[in-house]
Write a structure and sequence with these properties.
alpha+beta; three-stranded antiparallel sheet; Ribosomal Protein L22, Chain A; 27% strand
Length: 121
């Protein structure tokens, strides 16, 4: 194991952020992530948990916000519903430098909090 990261996001606070800075969607989330989130009447929970996942991945790599572009960390879902991580650009380069070859990711949320835990292997 190389690292573990976790993050919590307050959903109401993130809802305010999305309303105040709508461009955050394009800067932070891939086309596929936006399509998946926007398919729900209130996509905020889906965006918040993906934000938490992206931060958890960075923490598992031992870096913080700004070290890699958030959009370079993509959260995918298998047909079974299991989440996974796909890295692009600078995030993929950093993971390679660190020797990370696999990821484990778990996501959950309530009406008020979104949580993600990422394990870098």
């Amino acid at each position: 194991m190389i690292g573990i990261g976790t993050d919590l996001v307050e959903i109401d606070r993130f809802r305010t952020t999305l309303k105040r800075t709508p461009g955050i969607r394009q800067r932070t989330f891939t086309d596929a992530e936006r399509a998946w989130a926007d398919a729900k009447n209130d996509p905020t929970e889906r965006y918040a948990v993906r934000w938490a996942a992206k931060e958890a991945v960075m923490k598992a790599m031992g870096v913080g916000l700004g070290a890699v572009a958030m959009i370079d960390i993509e959260v995918e879902r298998a047909d079974s519903g299991a989440p996974s991580v796909r890295l692009h650009g600078g995030a993929a380069e950093l993971a390679t430098e660190l020797g990370i070859t696999e990821w484990r990711l778990t996501l959950t949320h309530t009406e008020s909090i979104a949580q993600a835990i990422a394990v870098a292997l």
